[in-house]
Amino acid sequence: MKPCVRMLIAGLLVPLSTTTAAAELIPTPSFSDHAIPTAEVPHADPSSWQALDVGLLTIALVLATYLALVRRSRRGMLVLTVACLVWFGFVRHGCVCSIGSLQNVALACAQSAYAVPWSVLAFFALPLIFTLFFGRTFCASVCPLGAMQELLAVRPHPVPRWLDQSLGLVPFFYLGAAMVFAATGTAFIICRYDPFVAFFRLGGNANILVFSACVAIVAVFVGRPYCRYLCPYGAVLGLLSRVARWHLRIVPGECITCRLCEEACPYGAIHPPTVPQTPQQRARGKKALLGTLAAAPLIVAVLAWLGTWWAVPLSRFHPTVRLAQQVQQEEAGETIQTTYASDAFRNTGQGLARLYDEAIAQQQRFVRIGGWLGAWMGLVLAVKLIHLAVRRRRTDYHPEQAGCVSCGRCFTSCPVELVRLGLIRDVSEMVKEPAA
Amino acid sequence: MALIASADRRRFLRDAIRVTSAVTLGTGVGFLAGQRGRPQDLRWQLDPDKCVGCGNCATKCVLDESAVKAVQCFDMCGYCDICTGYLATDYQQVDTAAENQLCPTGALVRRLIEEQAGQRFYEYTIDTPLCIGCGVCVKGCALMNGSLYLQVMHDRCVNCNECAIAVSCPSRAFDRLPGETPYRLKRQALALLQQKAAGPGQDAARAFLEQVYQP
């Protein structure tokens, strides 16, 4: 047997590592006319790309806002949508995006060793600020994920209100979970379950490809499913958009309540004006509101308590806990199959006790975190119930600011807008009897 | 009248919320941006001392051709004739024939440097464009000197927010390094390189060390 083969076999039996045996090296020879070279590694590309990205994001946000609120040009917005999809999606591979930046911010808040790069911070903050004043123009045409879905929504069907409202809670739960996982350094789940990054990169593993394909197919028949029922950043933007100062309006002037825009919104953000209530209805509404207000603390408390029970399954996402479990199973002889992770751990020569202690500490942390996560979910649920119990008075057609992404699909269904554009001379050409 | 009052109240409330949110956001962002002493520009890198050569680097990267490539630390290399990082376990002959090579892409180039007292010394260089970052040579070399190691190459890495290889790395060898020094060396190699760079005429070594994270 050749010596090297024997050595190889011996090497495969003992864990291969240079860390444990900070070994005696075979000395590097010195040569008569050959200097020992030094390897070269390529320089990191400068952060000029990031500056360019932030610049383009700002320009895109300004343009989107201008096109939606001032020019009211759906065509212009579509051009911008495609441009942003190409740049932020296909050229920059959809990373970093504003949605994912939530996690960087959470991680930086929780862990002092990590700082958010300024460009990521800009991606996080700029859309929030714009939304606070102008509504979700970012969603309309700047966000590559939104852009993708905007272009895919060719046969959108309305979603029943009860389903829309219930699924609308998911982004908030997702937001809570994403924050927790990011802050504990467990995982960036938003990035991991990015629906379109596989398209942007033209590749990905099987799971993500299936997920992407599902979202894409659903997006054809249901308007913006990711934005409405998953996107955690969209949830935040929706909240901020509620107080937007200059939000997009369906009507360029006075609404004539002609109802022509009622069906125009594929995202369910246009609701008809309310009818006056009877005194009985009002009394019942008041009772329901009082009931939900009373139940709110209870809901929060119960879910917080339930949350503490999620600690064990939640903590399994943490690599240290997972490793400790694997090692424990191996030690107990429950499994003979070692994993790369457990092999790597044994190579480090670190004591078992320390690993177990770390894992237990993590699990205890997750008890607390699970409680907070439960409380957050309870709060979301309670606020939603209260929100549903509160009656709002709508006298004309105005998009629901939280749900409206300012895409401008409703513009041309409004006769007042058509008059403004000079396409018709008077609203009476479309509406026989404008309501008073 | 009541309607106007309620509309006014609602408007005031919204204005108040908006201003409060804007101020909170500004303060928060300002606080995060102003955290000095923390590196701002961070790049993914792996710690070769922790790497076990599992092969995930070749397959888990979001790029078709992984950003991770093998690097040779010549100052740690024994220039062996029978190189465990170069030769396949079942090699028939010590030569450069494909079937005798460990590297699946032939990215490890073997070149005779000198013969001293009947012993031949070979230099092993990585042909970087061919390397797929599978770490087979790294695993092989770890049996001897362990001079070959993997690194994230920053001309290729797109610096994902969550590095897909880092997620799947069994030994959790990945973390973020400051952008000015985005490379790592093994501890042994670092000591050797520092020693070498102190010598005269070692500009290459010094330039290399400038890119290396030195804790």
What does this structure look like?
The complex is a heterodimer of chains A (436) and B (215). Chain A folds into 2 domains: 50-272 and 397-429, no CATH class; 279-389, no CATH class. Chain A has 20 helices and no strands. Chain A has helices spanning 3-13, 48-71, 74-91, 98-110, 118-134, 137-142, 144-152, 161-167, 170-183, 189-192, 197-200, 206-221, 225-229, 232-241, 279-308, 311-315, 319-331, 340-348, 352-389, 415-421. In chain A, helix 3 (74-91) crosses helix 7 (144-152), helix 5 crosses helix 14 (232-241) and helix 15 runs antiparallel to helix 19 (352-389). Chain A starts with a helix and ends in a 15-residue tail after the last helix. Chain B has a domain at 53-173: Alpha-Beta Plaits (2-Layer Sandwich), CATH 3.30.70. In chain B, 32% of the residues lie in helices and 17% in strands. Chain B is built from 6 helices and 6 strands, in the order αβαβββαβαβαα. Chain B has helices spanning 2-33, 56-60, 136-141, 164-168, 187-198, 203-210; strands at 42-46, 68-72, 108-116, 119-126, 148-152, 174-178. Chain B has a two-stranded antiparallel ribbon. In chain B, strands 2-5 form a two-stranded antiparallel sheet. In chain B, strands 3-4 form a two-stranded antiparallel sheet. In chain B, helix 5 (187-198) packs across helix 6. Chain B is elongated and about 100 Å long. Chain B starts with a helix and ends in a 5-residue tail after the last helix. At the A-B interface, helix 1, helix 4, helix 5 and helix 18 of A face helix 1, strand 3, strand 4, helix 5 and helix 6 of B.
